[in-house]
């Protein structure tokens, strides 16, 4: 049935070729009748099928017809993309002449090309394997072992690939002992050749008189580099423990595996120079995400196990092996500490392990520049309200529990509860609740009261705008202070908080996401602040001035603060602000064009291409658009963390790539007085520029205590009230 379909496909291809390119098949020199070269056939096929990505795909499609005997060469069984190789269609044998109307011939051609493209990869592989078999036959070396013994040892340099002809072998690794047994027809030794790494296991003959077929490394690379499997699987005790896949640069990267085997493989591939210095490939991806699949206790145990001493070999071999493994582990730990810094001190298991390594790992740890103490549960000024809405201020850690807050306010035994109130209603907080501050949403307040007073509580939102106050502040001062505050919040956050946030903080005991959540909440505050101020300003003229000021403030993108830039633009794009037609009409056309240009950066099409192009032009330091970074939740939800009970390390690598962007953004210190840029050229021209009459401290206090309305229905009502 398949052959019939292939003949039908060949008939449609041949007919269209004769119709559209009648001179392609013709008599050639040296008595070659009615044929065409391999290169001409590939060229023709590439023009007919725009979906073909490479000439090798076209070669595979023609190879299907060669295998069926429809397209023949005088001597060759393989199709070659060459000017010097000529092929002839077996027209009479297969009845390829076929006349159809133009529409039917095009439909049949596309159907035939679709079939050939599906069969092409297998045909191409079969063709390559024929070539490999021929070349391997010339380089295979027969190797015989009369007595049982060791073929090679773990840590040895990889020099050959072996196929078992007769007998069997045990595969043994340090610390694990026997991991699997291989028999006739199975192979070993390939992994070290693919990765150019030391042997990952010891191979011991199980019996006398064992025979092997051996391919040495040079021949292996030369012959198999184009056909070696894209995927390599390593098994122990009959189960897959590691899966590697060939990347675009022909190197093999980890796709999945058990946590211990991934770690072992990454350490094994380290190449140490005479000083024991070298980077560990992919290790930062592993370390940033390890708590998802390998908690600190498991990681520390695996590192301890990796340093186990050799059970056999000379004293010199044991000493060399011990030194090598120690150097690799030290290098890994150094990278671990560099990534996590003082945060590791808050992990008792990790800290105990590091102290046992007898080295001062934290001596060079420096905390990033920023007013806030980074990477910890920061102290935060809490405002707790009484039933009569009078605030009580407390300085407590940002991740304080309900019990901590209650203990700081009332004496033990008093009948008081902590209540959270927002625009949607009220909710009593459970006594065992943690991280009270980060549990607060936008525009939510904490009240302390008795059970009988809970019905009296109401959420208080701003009823008057601050347009008069903002009028006294220069756009530049507001933009500067927004950026300064964003930078403080941004640098207070550790990259690993994104991992906890994405996978769920509750899955990581003791994990802190308070700093990240505070940063995200400030983004929401800024966007609702913009629309709140517009909707609370009843005077049309003042409202137009305020709208223009917000567009000026949005020019802070030139200060490389994309987070607040998008917050302001999101606020201006809110439906309650957009419907203020009379206000927008009073905005100069030049300012409107600037706003429209900024708005286009929010375009989500083509995976937020406009935003990515804007970021590509920036150099550190800059503040990214954090809500967009948090969209990597889709990476998490769209890809399982485990595949066939193995860690999906490809997913971890994608998430780590996004997390490392945060580190790159703040790799340079931020100056609070940026140089004059495009924003100044746009807006700071002429005597109309307003200079701030307020002190920097007052602008700072204003920005850090924004009063907003987050209820969209109320905002819309206010918008309709001021502009019918």
UniProtKB/TrEMBL annotation:
Pfam families: cNMP_binding (PF00027), DEP (PF00610), RasGEF (PF00617), RasGEF_N (PF00618). One of its GO terms (cellular component) is plasma membrane. PANTHER family: GUANINE NUCLEOTIDE EXCHANGE FACTOR, RAP GUANINE NUCLEOTIDE EXCHANGE FACTOR 3. Residues 474-698 form the Ras-GEF domain. Residues 124-224 form the Cyclic nucleotide-binding domain. One of its GO terms (molecular function) is guanyl-nucleotide exchange factor activity. PROSITE patterns: CNMP_BINDING_3, DEP, RASGEF_CAT, RASGEF_NTER. Residues 250-389 form the N-terminal Ras-GEF domain. It comes from the Eukaryota. InterPro entries: cNMP-bd_dom (IPR000595), cNMP-bd_dom_sf (IPR018490), DEP_dom (IPR000591), Ras-like_GEF (IPR008937), Ras-like_Gua-exchang_fac_N (IPR000651), Ras_GEF_dom_sf (IPR023578), RASGEF_cat_dom (IPR001895), RASGEF_cat_dom_sf (IPR036964). Keywords: Guanine-nucleotide releasing factor. Residues 32-91 form the DEP domain. GO terms for biological process: Ras protein signal transduction. This is Rap guanine nucleotide exchange factor (GEF) 3.
């Amino acid at each position: 049935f398949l052959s019939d379909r292939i003949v039908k496909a060949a008939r449609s291809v041949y007919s269209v070729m004769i119709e559209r390119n009648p001179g392609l098949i013709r008599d050639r020199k040296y008595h070659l009748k009615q044929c065409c070269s391999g290169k001409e056939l590939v060229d023709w096929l590439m023009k007919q099928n725009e979906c073909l990505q490479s000439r090798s795909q076209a070669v595979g499609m023609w190879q299907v017809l060669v295998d069926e005997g429809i397209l023949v060469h005088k001597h060759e069984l393989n199709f070659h993309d060459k000017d010097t190789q000529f092929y002839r269609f077996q027209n009479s044998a297969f009845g390829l002449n076929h006349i159809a109307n133009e529409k039917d011939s095009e439909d049949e051609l596309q159907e035939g090309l679709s079939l050939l493209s599906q069969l092409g990869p297998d045909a191409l592989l079969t063709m390559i394997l024929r070539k490999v078999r021929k070349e391997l036959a010339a380089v295979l070396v027969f190797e015989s072992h009369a007595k049982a013994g060791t073929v090679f040892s773990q840590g040895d340099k990889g020099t050959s690939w072996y196929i078992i002809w007769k007998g069997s072998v045990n595969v043994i690794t340090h610390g694990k002992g026997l991991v699997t047994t291989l028999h006739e027809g199975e192979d070993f030794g390939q992994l070290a050749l693919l990765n150019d790494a030391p042997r990952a296991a010891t191979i011991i003959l199980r019996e006398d008189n064992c025979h092997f077929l051996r391919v040495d490394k040079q021949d292996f690379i030369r012959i198999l580099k184009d056909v070696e499997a894209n995927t390599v699987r390593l098994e122990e005790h009959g189960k897959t423990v590691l899966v590697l896949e060939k990347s675009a640069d022909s190197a093999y990267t980890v796709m999945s595996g058990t946590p211990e085997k991934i770690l072992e493989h990454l350490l094994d591939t380290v190449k140490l120079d005479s000083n024991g210095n070298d980077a560990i490939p992919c290790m930062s991806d592993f370390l940033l995400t390890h708590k998802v699949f390998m908690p600190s206790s498991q990681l520390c145990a695996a590192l301890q196990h990796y340093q186990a001493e050799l059970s056999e070999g000379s004293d010199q071999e044991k000493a060399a092996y011990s030194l090598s493994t120690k150097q690799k582990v030290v290098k890994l730990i150094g990278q671990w500490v560099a990534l996590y810094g003082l945060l590791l001190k808050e992990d008792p298991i990790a800290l105990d392990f590091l102290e046992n390594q007898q080295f001062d790992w934290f001596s060079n740890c420096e905390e990033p520049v920023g007013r806030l103490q980074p990477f910890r549960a920061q102290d935060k000024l809490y405002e707790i309200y009484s039933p009569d809405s009078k605030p009580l201020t407390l300085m407590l850690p940002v991740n304080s529990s309900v019990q901590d807050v209650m203990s700081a306010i009332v004496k033990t035994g008093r009948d008081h509860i902590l209540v959270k109130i927002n625009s949607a209603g009220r909710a009593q907080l459970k006594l065992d609740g943690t991280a009270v501050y980060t549990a607060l949403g936008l525009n939510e307040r904490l009240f302390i009261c008795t059970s009988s007073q809970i019905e009296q509580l109401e959420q208080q939102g701003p009823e008057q705008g601050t347009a008069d106050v903002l009028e006294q502040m220069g756009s530049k001062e507001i933009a500067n202070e927004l950026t300064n505050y964003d930078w403080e919040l941004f640098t207070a956050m550790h990259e690993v908080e994104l991992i906890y946030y994405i996978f769920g903080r509750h899955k990581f005991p003791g994990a802190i996401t308070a700093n990240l959540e505070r940063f995200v909440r400030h983004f929401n505050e800024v966007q609702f602040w913009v629309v709140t101020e517009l909707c609370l300003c009843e005077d049309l003229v003042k409202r137009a001035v305020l709208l223009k000021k917000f567009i000026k403030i949005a020019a802070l993108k030139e200060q490389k603060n994309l987070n607040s830039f998008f917050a302001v633009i999101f606020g201006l794009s809110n439906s309650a602000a957009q419907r203020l037609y009379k206000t927008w009409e009073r905005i100069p056309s030049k300012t409107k064009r600037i706003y429209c240009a900024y708005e286009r950066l929010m375009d989500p099409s083509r995976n937020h291409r406009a935003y990515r192009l804007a970021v590509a032009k920036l150099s550190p330091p800059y503040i990214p658009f954090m809500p967009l970074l948090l969209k990597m939740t889709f990476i998490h939800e769209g890809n399982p963390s485990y595949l066939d009970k193995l860690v999906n390390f490809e997913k971890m690598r994608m998430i780590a790539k996004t997390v490392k962007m945060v580190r790159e953004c703040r790799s340079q210190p931020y100056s609070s007085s940026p140089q004059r840029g495009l924003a100044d050229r746009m807006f700071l021209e002429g005597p109309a520029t307003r200079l701030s009459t307020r002190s920097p401290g007052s602008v700072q206090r204003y920005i850090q205590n924004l009063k907003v309305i987050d209820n969209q229905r109320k905002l819309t009502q206010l918008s309709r009230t001021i502009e019918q």
